[in-house]
Design a protein that fits this description.
21 helices; about 30% helix; Rossmann fold; alpha/beta; globular; 2 domains; binds ligand 6R9; GMP Synthetase, Chain A, domain 3
Length: about 650
Amino acid sequence: MPDDALIAVKPELAQGARVDAARHRTMTAEAIRDPEGFWREEAKRIAWMTPPTKIKNTSFEGDVSIRWFEDGVLNASVSCLDRHLETRGDQVAIIWEGDDPNSDAKVTYRELHERVCRMANAIKALGVKKGDRVTLYLPMIVEAAVAMLACARVGAVHSIVFGGFSPDSLSSRIQDCDSTLLITADQGRRGGRTVPLKTNADEALKSCPTVKNVLVVRNTGNAVPMQEGRDIWCHEACAAASADCPPEPMNAEDPLFILYTSGSTGKPKGVLHTTGGYMVWASYTHELVFDYRPGEVYWCTADVGWVTGHTYIVYGPLANGATTLMFEGVPNWPGIDRCWQVVDKHQVNIFYTAPTAIRSLMREGEAPVRKWSRQSLRVLGSVGEPINPEAWMWYYRVVGDERCPIVDTWWQTETGGILISPLPGAVDQKPGSATLPLPGVQPALVDGEGNLLEGATEGNLVILDSWPGQMRTVYKDHERFIQTYFSTFPGKYFSGDGARRDADGYYWITGRVDDVLNVSGHRMGTAEIESALVAHPKVAEAAVVGMPHELKGQGIYCYVTLKTGEEPSDALKKELVAWVRKEIGPIAAPDAIQWAPGLPKTRSGKIMRRILRKIAANETDSLGDTSTLADPTVVQDLIGNRVG
Ligand code: 6R9
């Protein structure tokens, strides 16, 4: 697909759109000319107890300080619930679609408000107060949203751990933020299988002395062990609690949540988002990017364990009074047409998913899609990794019948919400391009030395100035925040991504330029997988790189050096795959393991990952300079024994 393949905005979408092309231009100009005035206005989209008078106070220099709306007072749950009661109390807030196609539920704003207030009082009764951390380890059930908003209501900071993570991953995330309460469920359901959440939690809690109580949601109803004095059934606690819970007044810069995400080094870091700026950003981007119109049904297929679930299943849609669909299952179960069946069943207007899902559905052909009407669909979205033009075109042509625009949304856990994306009624699309920044976002490309690059070019993607939804710090480690995001190119936020910009100013994200993998849209640090591997008693050393993978985008390729005396075998490979699954979770399972008697190291002992990436990708004729290696012969051995 050539760069200039433009798919123009459809007139019927520009009509009545929240933002059309002209408005897009004025907003973009205004947000730069007068950020204070622009964001003072946009801040009105959420509910304040005390509206802010101070708007922007941010610096990317020195100690890096980011403060938005800093004298405003609010509670996020009020924007998502209370203020809708009068106008849309009986409108459905959440449509829940179970893993089992015969189970679903609808929850109105009034019901959701009551459930949140009850759970808020229940966790208060357990001693949780403003500023305390609460870890959530839940399946995709309504209680996940209820628990998030209940934490927000009492001013507690939630930290959600994806239900697919292992006990070890859960315990390290609890330990890092010293949670006093864990909210989990007996079990989860996914694709017809059960996920042993409570059993995993029990295992994790053996090393988490700060956790005093566990609130357990009864979900599958199967028997699970309950520890006397510590574990409490959620439905019993909520039934006993009052349905009246005044929202805790929070400063705009008080924390709303922590979410752990992988970086290029060390343990996952606690990305901290605060209340005012994040809520404004969630509402602003959800409305603009999806051109959300009142009454529409909106479905984001992410899990609440990822940032996409936070911003675009819960906070953004609910702040905007939308009907948001929460799906417990997986896109290909019980049949490959499950998504389209759900679209027809609930008359979904906006559908937001990941390229990896699109690629795996595409492989099954058009028939399973064509079987369903999909006439309700109006806008399609993509997030999590670069979408290749072939998958883009299939999504556009087959799923959307060439009627629905595709919003390819680029953003990160750190950015809180979408930064670069077309707007359906305003920006012409190019298959494979995230297109243009949202009004108020100033991306730029820099070379390796940090010099700004002009015009059509390729480089490192940075953001020049703050936006309200930006993360504020790494929880308990501001130094790491500065180091990770502001030290590579001082004075600029570095995303870790590379991008190309074409002559029309459109951005084409090329992927991570650091040691972070993106496997099926899930972020993983190579360092985390390496440390899981070397924790195995037979492994001496490991180096992990990404390799191209048809469905997952990237696969996990591991070079493993065994301890002296250990024999390589297929059985040991299987054991290592199982080991990593157990240590981190199934999403980290290696796709390929290659035995490596030696690794290519520089004389100072640094592993040259560039070479390992080339070998994994089978691009061995372009290895580049290997003269600085301590022992260049290891490279030939690795090439000769490449796996796959
Ligand atoms: C929201 C989310 C962030 C990383 C990011 C980038 C990749 C996300 C993308 C995309 C190309 C897109 N990414 N959206 N790459 N086009 N539309 O995914 O957050 O889990 O923190 O991952 O995902 O590499 O840096 P997170």
